[in-house]
Amino acid sequence: MESQKTMKAVQVKDFSKPVEIVEIPIPKISSSQVLVKMLYTPCNPADILSAEGKYFATCNLPLPIGIGFEGTGEVVEVGKDVESKFKPGDKVFCITMGTWAEYVIAEGDSCHLLPSDAPVDVAACAFINPMTVYMMLLELQAEGHKSVVHTAGSSSLGRMFIKVMKENGIKTINLVRNDEYIKELQEMGADYVLNTKDEDFEKKFKEVVNSLDCRKAYDAIGGQFTSKLVWMMPKKSNISVYGLLGGGSQVHADFWALLSQDSTIGGFWLSVKMANHPTEKIVEGFQKIFAGLRGTYATQIVKVFSLDEVREAIKFSQEHGSKGKVLLSPTGK
Question: Do residues 71 and 95 lie in contact, with contact meaning Cβ atoms separated by under 8 Å?
Fold first, then answer.
């Protein structure tokens, strides 16, 4: 292992205060783990919510906590139980908590060898968005849907969603809040792009979903908009809420809408959806994602920041999230 004994890492010590860059010991691995020198790690909405104490998976953890859930790096040290899978120098994608750091420890099962031709920066975003879209695809196929509404059409996930659904023959109705995205998303393969701020939005929306008999929606907005969706979708629809872009942690539904529409609202959390599939299906998903990093599962990278610039990175990501992903490069690669 490299001679360095300490490392820089981003931590939250108080949810009411900004993240901090701290100097902590490089962690020691167990026999089932690998030590990874981080090359790239994205600023995802879930990471930022974690830093604010608003993400369910981390808000009740004792402080301080490390931030970041995914990224790419180079294997530095390998536990004896996983020596058949990894060796020092391997480029890997890993899923673990605290990836906004120079080094992380990852369980062997949560670490994946990258193909030799994989773009290491784009591969840093290979889990949260791509696997979410892949799980959505499996769900749509299992439920027999031929069309779907997505309420965050211009987001990084939304752009990937359009390409993946197009490739698999599922029509998409994509919602945006700015006309500047309409042509771009259409050229990407979107079947319909509707601006929620248009005066006749509801009329257009109902016409499209009824013409397609579309009864499935993935909602990243939440709040009052979810209630609006129940009224606008055809009867016996299902709305899966997976984000809270509308602000707050409440999702609203009108009682009479649920009764008269006979529709359902549920949650879509990636870890829960993955747990409902066999390991082989998840491995197959990662294989498809890695193979599509330059195509269907590509992520647009808009800017790369150093670890010392983490606060600027968070701000830039919040202001320009619809343009693509912001990365941190913890070791300056």
Answer: no
Q: Under a CB-based contact definition with an 8 Å cutoff, are residues 144 and 181 in contact? A: no
For residues 46 and 138, state if they share a domain: no
Mean pLDDT of 4-25: 94
Q: Looking at the structure, do residues 251 and 156 belong to the same domain, yes or no? A: yes
133 plus 83 within the same structural domain: no
Q: In this structure, what token pair is assigned to residue 246?
A: 């509308």
Indicate which CATH number applies to the domain containing 205: 3.40.50.720
Concatenating the DSSP letter of every residue in 278-312 gives: -HHHHHHHHHHHHHTTTTTT---EEEEEEGGGHHH
Per-residue pLDDT reduced to its tens digit, 204-227: 999 999 999 999 999 999 989 999
Q: pLDDT by residue (tens digit) across 252-298? A: 888 888 889 999 999 999 999 999 999 999 999 999 999 999 999 99
- Please give the DSSP secondary-structure letter assigned to residue 80: G
What tens digit of pLDDT does each residue of 164-214 get? 999 999 999 999 999 999 999 999 999 999 999 999 999 999 999 999 999
Same structural domain for residues 258 and 152? Answer: yes
pLDDT at 2 over 70: no
Pairing of strands 147-150, 6-12: unpaired
Query: How many Cβ atoms from other residues are within 10 Å of residue 280's Cβ?
Result: 8
Which of 110, 104, 102 has its CA nearest to residue 85? 110
In whole angstroms, give the CA distance from residue 194 to residue 187: 14
**What's the token pair of residue 67?**
């931030």
